UniProtKB/TrEMBL annotation:
Compartments (UniProt record): Membrane
Membrane topology type: Multi-pass membrane protein
Keyword match Cytoplasm: no
Keyword terms of this UniProt record: Membrane, Transmembrane, Transmembrane helix
Signal peptide: none
Name of the molecule in the record: Permease of the drug/metabolite transporter (DMT) superfamily
UniProt organism field: plant metagenome
Domain EamA: 2-119, 134-264
Membrane-crossing residue ranges in chain numbering: 18-38, 50-71, 77-96, 103-122, 137-154, 166-184, 196-213, 225-244, 250-267
Pfam family, any one: EamA
Lineage: unclassified sequences, metagenomes, organismal metagenomes
Cellular component aspect of the GO annotation: membrane
Amino acid sequence: MVVTKMAAGVIAPFTIGFYRWVIAGAALTPFLLGPVWRARASILPHLGKLAILSMLGMAIFQSLAYLAAASTTATNMGFITALVPLLTIGVGAVVLRERPRAQALLGGLLSLGGISILVSHGDPASLLSTGVNRGDLMMFVAALGYALYGVLLRKWALPIPPWHSLYIQVLVVILLQLPPFLLTPISPITGENLPVLLYAAILPSLFAPYLWLRAVGLLGPARASIFINLTPVFTVVIAATLLAEPVAGYHLAGGAITLAGVMLAQWRGRERRVTTSSRG
């Protein structure tokens, strides 16, 4: 989130959104084009689902994050992203027909209270008159899309190796990002924005999606998303250090309440899984 915020001042959202995936695709092609082509018979039946996953996890999430960075702070973006575990429970209830527990509902209300403190700068009542910041709202939609991405990964459980799946999704997102790239102002690549672009193309575009695919496959979306709770912790520290973003009392209060709600929503589920496993 910190690098996304840094990009907001030096490169247009759809410029970095397109170039990062082109670079990622170029890096993967020498290693994966041949294996994916040879496995095309087993991949083609799932191409539509891979396209949906690419749209949710890469195109929508990243595009909204870059757009949001222009009107909100990296700290807010980190805390709103921390809602992904809670949103995963809600989306799972709809898509997977997993009935949410009372703790999940209570945790949801608690997290919403925390987010309201965060996005209103400590004055939730002001939301009735001023509404929610545009950037914060876009990050919430991005988090919702990423939660759906994780749930669909579990629901579909595509029989495709993670690197093959990632490569196909990268190729799809390049096509999805091409129209907005061509229809919006294109930023020139400079010495100032090149490091940000290369970072975005390598770590968040290649290794993070691969590790997320592996984590969801091994742990399931709900358990894997628990680790997203660490995002705001790292974001606050790095944003304060690199961007000199002030950390106000409402950040700490709203963030703590939000994370408490997320952990409350998940705590009983983890305990139940351990109990079930011990009985087996």
